[in-house]
Amino acid sequence: MQLKNFSWFRLQDHLKNFSFVLPAILIFCIFYIYPFFDIFRLSFHEWNGITPSMKYVGLQNLQELMKDEVWWQAMGHAAYITFIALTFQNVLAFALALACDREIRMKRFYRVVFFIPPVLSEVVVGLIWQWILYAGMQDGQHIGLLNYWLTQTGLPHLVHNWLSDPKTALTCIAIVHSWKGFGWGFIMLLAGLQTIDRQLYEAARVDGAGSWKLFTNVTIPMMVPVMLVVVILTVLGSMQVFVLVLSMVGQGLGYHTEVPVTRILSAMTGTNRFGYACAMGINFGVILIMVSVAFKWLSNRMKQA
Amino acid sequence: METNKYMVQRITKGFLVHMFLIIFAVTCLFPLFWMLRSALMTNETVFTDKSFIPRAINFGNFAQAWTEGNFGIYFFNSLLYTTCVVVGIVLVASLAAYSFSRLDFPGKNFFFYMFVAAMMIPLPGSFVPLYRLMTVLGLINTRIGYILCMINVGLSMSILLLKTFFDKMPSDLEDAARIDGCGRLGIWWHVALPLARPALAVIVIFNSLNVWNEYILATLLLNDKSLMPLQRGLMVFQGSHSVDYPLLMAGLTIAAIPIVVIYLAMQKHIVKGLSSGAIVG
Questions:
Q1: In order of start, what are the domains of chain B with their CATH numbers?
Q2: Most buried among A3, A36, A155, A263, using CB within 10 Å?
Q3: What interface predicted TM-score (ipTM) does this complex get?
């Protein structure tokens, strides 16, 4: 009798404890878990998003996607933006972090200012830069600031239709993306630099190491874990960039500035092929997971070496 | 002589480092300054006058954007969504995190790792099935639908952060409250939540930034202009008034100012949150 009461009490106790997580689990199951499985189901169907019935087509969507040139071209564009972000943005972030990781005046000011672009939305950033890069003319004068400055400083041959020329549009997007992102890498790398024990530097200096040696033999090896986090997050963030593309050039440039997520979006809202859009999403998700696993593996190899 | 040379070297080095930092600080600030400057001009002068400080300052754009450009409505909506989502996340996530950290029930670890796993798996295109779900539930084009979706977006990160915080927090005060006859809900509200203030600050800021700046779900889920938040409204405005740059810049300023002010006021917490993320991650 007593034992029975006890277990009844325990069950009640567990139920009460469980009720604390219930709201979170409910929201999570409805808005994350269910769509997560639904995306696989939808990818096997041809569905226009409106009619209640959908047609089962099996792997056809995925097969079609494998041969979809525009899709792989879009993937290439995202890879290009990621490449610029990895090299230009992260090297810049690291250089600025190194410059700030010392006794220097106005350190706080720099730290605050560099993180302003990352807190702005992609829509705001994209539209401001679109205005600066604007290529129109009025009364023989360039409207956009960049082209205006180029003519004023005697470089009129560099004046360009920055965002409507397929050759430069993607690079402009990549550079604006880096402008928006470097402050975030800067903060993380600076935090990493500040955790390095100063005694390591002193010990190395006593052993006769110059500043370059200090950098390559102390700073870099100590920073590998933080750098890896920054690299992975940069890759995941840059591959999935798309709001910046929409706000800077819209979807009106043929396929020259398409990235994977804009393709998913136009399959969904443009051509009403929801199943195909889901197949794209799965394909892209798998690629992203493979890339981040590859980076993890690479860094583990580096740590062992 | 030796010390002199050393001094000169040091000063030039410091000067170069500062030059480098200042150039990029200016690069960060200038586009914002240019936005503000263009917002203060009229449609006639903005295309020709390229001086930094415009000769005639015109505040009318802000009023015009606020009323005719619908930015007043968009602003109110953004404010409403951000407040509701952040309050929702704080309540739901802290309840869950408290239970994961302090209380016991079967399957606790399974549910916790479910949330962690969701953060690790990138799922681009998840907005497609989400759109379908919202249509089925009849939540499309409703405020509550958008709010629930956005609560879900910030949930995993907030639970993880709060659980790590609760795990490190000593439980003495909670024990004392329990001896005084406080129930677990009372302990959560009166003891755990006030003590978790530093972690809550980080959660509030990151989720506010996230909701205020969100674009894609707002685009897919909300069609009525009366329901749209700022980011969506900006794109709609840009699509219909493509040449009215001073007005657009006024709209951008309205969208950017609150976030910059919050950031400047709370930047200590942001740096702390990001740094701990970098070191834990």
A1: 60-280 (1.10.3720.10)
A2: A263
A3: 0.89
